[in-house]
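My current task is to audit a protein record that another person submitted. What it holds is a sequence and that sequence's fold in token form. Thanks in advance; the entry in question is below.
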Amino acid sequence: REKLSVARLQREVAQSKSEGAMREKLIHELEEERHLRLESEKRLREVTLESERSRAQMRGLQEQFSRMEETVRNLLQSQGSPGQNGEGTVNIMKVYQEKLSEDSRKCKEGMEKIHMPVDEDSRSESSSTEEEKEKTKLLLERLKALE
């Protein structure tokens, strides 16, 4: 009878030790998951903030582009018909293209700084990237029309 009792107690001790080890393992995994979640949330906040900065920069560039377009139109109108002063128009367009390419380069550099691997939580940012690509395409079409 004592042997059965000792064997039963040993089984209970072994079972309790294995449950304790499993509990420790689960707690460790839980802490690891919590840490990863906090890191992901931090990255998401950073990417969101950078995205807002990029949108503001894009709006500024679009406004500047519109002002430059208007300036070119005004200069072309003030010079009269295109045949009168073709060289002046070419110079204006060169200056305009240089300024536009400089702004485009700055925008691309800004966008390259932003492009970083992002976790699944920030997939909604891809739709805004598509919008920005569409806006860039429209701006390029406007430039071609001006040329």
